[in-house]
Structures are given as structure tokens and as C-alpha cells.
Task: structure prediction
Amino acid sequence: MQLITCPWCGPREETEFRYGGQAHVNYPDNPAALSDQEWARYVFFRDNTKGAWAERWSHSAGCRRWFNAIRDTVTYQFRAVYRLDEPKPVIS
Amino acid sequence: MTTTLPRRPGAGLPDHPRFLWRNPEPKGTYDIVIVGGGGHGLATAHYLARNHGITNVAVLEKGWLGGGNLARNTTLIRSNYLWDQSATIYEHSLKLWEGLEEDLGYPILFSQRGVLNLAHSEQDVRDGVRRVEANKLNGIDASWLGPDEIAKICPIVNLSADIRYPVLGATYQPRAGIAKHDYVGWGFARRADEAGIDLIQACEVTGFAADGNQVTGVQTSRGTIGAGRVLLCAAGNTTTLTDMLGLRTPVQSHPLQAVVSELLEPVHPTVVMSNAVHVYVSQAHKGELVMGAGVDAYNGYGQRGSFHVIERQMSAAVELFPIFARAHLLRSWAGTVDVCPDASPIVDRTPYDNVFLNCGWGTGGFKATPGIGWCLADTLANDEIHPYIKPFSLGRFVTGALVDEHGAAGVAH
Result:
């Protein structure tokens, strides 16, 4: 089983975690001003990157905190994990 | 003295024809270029030739024909969907399945052995009864069965009240069934090739040449190929193509795993699905138990998934079918499925006038193969979206007219 490193708890088994999809999708600054098209983009449309991409995970059966990770969607290898208040690391 | 030998597991599969298809060099230009040589692409090619007499067509495949999700699905075919829009396209497809072996002149081993969708809670029962009534209104064969009737159709289901999720009833569609997935793809490919359509393998699309809102050609690992119209049928790899066109879709690519057991005597006469305990099981012609469940939660293009997903699905299978407990698992694998937020496909024209998109079939694309091929061929031939696929526009995510099959189909297709 894949081990995922929680930024607070360290490496734990994959079954302790829940997936949260693409990271860095911010709630709209001015929701009342959004068109239907823009709402659709925010609600439904995400990147679907093949390769390294930033995504959210929750350590749901552990500390229950959310964090971000850069993971390769082809090899499933975690390249980096980082807290929500940390900037997205640059992965070469 | 004569003895009758028991049917040997693995025996009795039909032989293949000696010649399947050519391996042509790509021509400079085609009236229609289909990207993706899986079930949907090959079916579209066949119906372009058969229904419309259009044969100046190429199917481009980056690997080999039918080597993606067509080779990796669990071969279930049914049309008992809740919503009218889904029922229409899937029932159209099921009717085509019923005559497909004759149409293709190829043994696809289509076996209408029925599907049971089990209910394990009061809410499952209400949803199931509702779906049966909706199916009847759409002219689809469906009935609601109690546990006694389930036992007559599939005696090996554990109907004891003493299990974690007791079986309270099931919906039943007798015309549902399974087919030999590889043979289906090869049958379509052989017919399309016979008609003169070029099936070009090991030909990966690397870009598109555009002029205004028209795509003029497809750049590939085997050179640029001019195209009058283009159809994208790349399932889990759709985003790779749409990114090249600067087009965004709401699909996410996930691993979807399946497993087979060793070859067994015939023990399982039908198809059983359970969304609540989360497994679906049939027995293939050769004798393997074929089992699948839901997608792995994370995005993934790796054609493999996590072991704990298989573990959970096996525990569900053994709970529902105690006699499977000693069966050995032979193989597991995964495909890459393109899942839409409402679990319904996207079939639409793109902002490029002559480029059409077929994606988002997620976990349920195999059963739609002939139906969507038929509708896409009609769409390409007439340059107008076929009425059966109009509800599956990309615009529904803006208007809110979603076709929400999550509630009806759950994750299991």
C-alpha cells in the first residue's frame, strides 16, 4: 500500500486519507458578479493533468487536517506535500 | 460404454477469421478523421460506412485497436437507466446489440442473461421501484423482484437476513447481459476495414492545425493528416487532446479496476450489481468470474489502482456470494475512465465547427458502443447533432440541465 506523508503526522497508509481533487481552486472573490458561464467554470471545470499536478488530501482517519500535494498522475508518486498556508513548491 | 464429459471450462470459444484488417499507411487527407481506435471510434467508423456510405475515413489509434478501455471493461450491457435521456441512448444501443452479431458477421457472444440490481436498504427499495416504473414508461423491460424471486433467478446470492446488508429486493432487466468485449471491437474493426476505412495504429495525435474556427488537419507521430471533420473518441485521454485545442471539459480521469477469478464451472447464471455493498459480478463464457466496482478516488492515468479498493470489493463479493470464498483471483487490472460530474457523457460540437467531442462516458461506455457509434456516424454525416445525444451537450454545465445518473446508476455501471 502507498504511504502518504501527512505534513503533521508523517507517513501513514493511504487508507487513512481522503481525496479532495484539484488544489488552489479559490472561491470567487465576488460571487454575486459571476455569470452562469463563470459559475460553471468554478463549480464543474477542473484541470485534468497527466503528470505532476497539485491536489488536496485530507488525513481523515488521522489528524483530520487538509493539506496539498504534488503527485504524478501517471506514476502516482508523491513529489511533495505542503500545508495549506505554504506556497506551492516548484517541481522540476 | 459412453460417458458424457462435463463441459470443460475455457472450451467452446469460437475461432477468429484468418484475416482481420489491413495495416495501411495514412493517406494525406480524409473526409473524416476519428481519433481513438476503441469501441466508440470503431463503431462510428462501421456505421459511417454501413448507414451513410462514407468510407474516406481514418481511425487513428496511438496504441493498438481496442487496447484501452474496450479491453479492460467488465462487459455489462443494460439500458435500465432512470432518466429519459439516458434510457433513450442506452435502449437504442441495446436494440442494436440484439442484432449486432448478424450485422458484423462476427461471433460477439452476446448473452442476454439479465441483470439484477440489488437493494439493501429502504431507500434502495424506493429508488429501485421508482427506476422500474420509469423504465416501463420508456418501454424498457423491467420488474421489481422480492428475495424469493431473486433466489429463482440467481440461487447463489446470499439472501440470509443475517448479513450486514441484507438483500431486500432487486430490479431485474431480462434483456440485459454481457458480450465478449474484444470480439466486439474486432468485429467493428473488420467490417470498417472491409468497407475501405483506414485503421491506423501506432499513430499518436500530437497537435491540430487550425484555420479560424476550423481544424484543417491532425498532426500525428506519422505525419500531418488533413481532415474534413474530426471526432475525438479518446475516453480517459480526452483531456490530452482537448488541451491541444485549448478547450476545457469537466471530465476527470480516474483508474477503474476489475478482476477475474480462475476458470470455474458455470455457477452464476446472470449479472448481479449492488451499489450499496459495491460490487458487480458476472461469469464470462470461458468461466471466469468477472468483478468490478467503483473508481479509485484519485485522478490517475496509470492504468492501475490501489489494492485496498480491490480488497473492499472482494469482501463485498464474498458477503453476497459465500461460494466465491475459495475462488482464486487470477488477474486484476485497471482502465482510465473519464468521469463527468453528473455521470453522463459529453457528446457535442466543439468551438471548432468541424470538430466533435465524445467523452465523459466514465464507467459505462462499453454498453453504449453500438448506440453511440450509430448516433455519431449520423452526426458526422449530416453535420448535425443526432437528437438522441443532444441532451449530452457541454452547455448543460452552464444551463444546469444536468442528466444526473449518479443517483440512478451510482458508481457501478
Observations:
- The interface with chain A takes residues 237, 239-240, 248-253, 297-302, 304, 306-308, 341, 397-400 of chain B (CB under 8 Å).
- Residues 42 and 269 of chain B are 30 Å apart (CA to CA).
- Chain B has a mean pLDDT of 94.
- Chain B is about 30% helix and 25% strand.
